[in-house]
């Protein structure tokens, strides 16, 4: 009897051992394939687990920049939008704060910090630029602007993640190796005190960088952020470095969107460049109005005399705007520029709280709708053909969901889109269909929640193997007891 049981137990052990070997072999092969895909720089979420090292990571990169795979859906600005099958690279952790000053410039994963742009007398305007792309093949540059906290690293990363998503959308048919992302670092005097700005770096008081007024230093230098951005644009249009470059997009959301709209209004004419520059204006808190008319006639407060002054209108321009003609000339030039206004249909936040902004409306959304009406009124009932409004459904004041909306992606990464410009404020020039297309246009893969199933298959195999090993151990113990 003992021999019979021993024979069957040994048989069970043999079969179990074969199962273990086969399962572990299959698991090893799967892990080897996964490692190979990650090592090759895969951007597909199915090749990673949450918290994995992101492709392109280097020693010294700031913390927080790992692969994020969760169900955030992009609403937290730190996860991939639903229906996009690519990874999301987390935002860099930075010391200090925007109110007291940032203590360092984070090493942004996949980007290099550059200090080769000088403005004025040996004054440096730092910027970051994507690493490893062949300058001779770059056809498009997207220059991102920060929000109120001057968090250039966040917005460069958001647009980078949107580019990853867009690059696997066969409808867009873009090559991300030909698209370069860059971001200027607008420092404040607090950043200089806290340690992130160098002694020769251009610095501004508070948020003065966002409206193009002159700098506060270094050493008393008076240089507009718009002049510095002109210099960065010139660097990219230099054919000796970027011979294939065709287009530049200036892009921002919230205060960065306001910066972009103001710059588009006041940028000096450059016949060699202007047709090759587009402006992406996402949910700005307020606008510079091209006429003296306002949609709200008596919002309260006591600023009627300043409601049309710069930064809200075209009176009392900063030094950068001198010599550019009167308000009508500046507005006419603006109407000919290529602009997208991307507005969340549920963005009911108040935005800019200054008295002058209240003449434009009560929220980000209403101010955008009122601005669209103003463009019509000033242009014989039609929005200028080179301007378009993309109203994004089910999105509030959410940076990433604005940047990664497929209609936005087409503007950012493909052509910049010439608009029909004739929709009502309650719909969109392309936004109603564009937002719907957003859920289908990026839907070349499964949703982010299902992406994690690919990563969990290895864990399931490990669990099965552990179960078999446990059974074998129990059988071995039983065999030992019987034999003894």
TrEMBL record:
Region (Disordered): 416-460
Keyword Signal attached: yes
Low complexity bias (residue ranges): 416-430, 445-460
Listed InterPro entries: AB_hydrolase_fold (IPR029058)
Source species, domain of life: Eukaryota
Entry keywords, A to Z: Signal
TM helices/strands, residue ranges: none
Segments of skewed composition (Gly residues): 431-444
SUPFAM superfamilies per the UniProt record, alphabetical: alpha/beta-Hydrolases (SSF53474)
Signal peptide: 1-21
PANTHER family referenced in this protein's UniProt entry, alphabetically: BLL0132 PROTEIN (PTHR35560), PEPTIDASE S9 PROLYL OLIGOPEPTIDASE CATALYTIC DOMAIN-CONTAINING PROTEIN (PTHR35560:SF3)
Protein name per Swiss-Prot or TrEMBL: Fungal lipase-like domain-containing protein
Organism: Ustilago hordei
């Amino acid at each position: 009897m003992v021999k019979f049981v021993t024979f069957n137990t040994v048989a069970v052990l043999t079969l179990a051992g074969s199962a273990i070997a086969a399962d572990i072999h299959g698991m090893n092969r799967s892990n080897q394939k996964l490692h190979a895909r990650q090592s090759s720089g895969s951007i597909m979420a199915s090749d990673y687990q949450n918290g994995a090292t992101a492709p392109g990571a280097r020693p010294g990169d700031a913390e927080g920049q790992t692969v994020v795979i969760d169900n955030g859906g992009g609403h937290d600005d730190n996860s991939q939008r639903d229906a996009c099958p690519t990874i999301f690279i987390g935002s860099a952790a930075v010391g200090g704060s925007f109110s007291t000053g940032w203590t360092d410039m984070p090493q942004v994963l996949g980007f290099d910090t550059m200090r080769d742009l000088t403005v004025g007398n040996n004054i440096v305007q730092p910027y970051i630029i994507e690493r490893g792309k062949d300058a001779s093949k770059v056809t498009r540059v997207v220059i991102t602007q920060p929000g109120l906290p001057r968090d250039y690293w966040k917005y460069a990363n958001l647009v980078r993640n949107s580019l990853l998503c867009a690059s696997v959308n066969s409808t867009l048919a873009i090559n991300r190796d030909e698209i370069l992302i860059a971001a200027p670092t607008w420092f404040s005097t607090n950043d200089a005190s806290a340690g992130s700005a160098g002694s020769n770096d251009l610095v501004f008081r508070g948020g003065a960088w966002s409206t193009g007024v002159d700098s506060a230093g270094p050493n008393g230098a008076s240089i507009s952020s718009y002049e510095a951005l002109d210099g960065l644009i010139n660097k990219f249009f230099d054919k000796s470095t970027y011979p294939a470059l065709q287009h530049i997009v200036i892009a921002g959301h919230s205060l960065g969107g306001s910066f972009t709209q103001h710059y588009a209004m006041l940028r000096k004419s450059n016949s060699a460049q202007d047709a090759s520059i587009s402006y992406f204006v996402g949910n700005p808190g307020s606008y510079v109005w091209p006429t003296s008319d306002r949609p709200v006639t008596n919002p309260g407060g006591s600023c009627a005399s300043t409601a049309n002054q710069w930064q809200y209108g075209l009176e009392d321009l900063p030094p950068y705007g001198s010599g550019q003609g009167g308000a009508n000339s500046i507005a006419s030039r603006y109407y000919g520029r290529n602009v997208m206004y991307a507005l969340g249909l549920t963005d009911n936040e108040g935005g800019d709280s200054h008295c002058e902004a209240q003449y434009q409306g009560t929220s980000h959304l209403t101010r955008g709708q009122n601005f669209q009406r103003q463009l019509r009124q000033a242009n014989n009932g039609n929005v200028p053909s080179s301007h378009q409004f993309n109203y994004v459904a089910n999105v509030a004041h959410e940076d990433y969901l604005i940047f990664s909306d497929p209609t936005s992606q087409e503007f950012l990464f493909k052509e910049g889109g010439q608009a029909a410009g004739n929709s009502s404020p309650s719909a969109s020039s392309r936004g109603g269909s564009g937002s719907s297309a957003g859920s289908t246009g990026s839907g070349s893969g499964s949703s982010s929640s299902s992406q994690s199933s690919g990563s969990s298959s290895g864990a399931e195999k490990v669990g099965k193997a552990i179960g078999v090993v446990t059974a074998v151990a129990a059988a071995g113990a039983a065999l030992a007891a019987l034999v003894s």
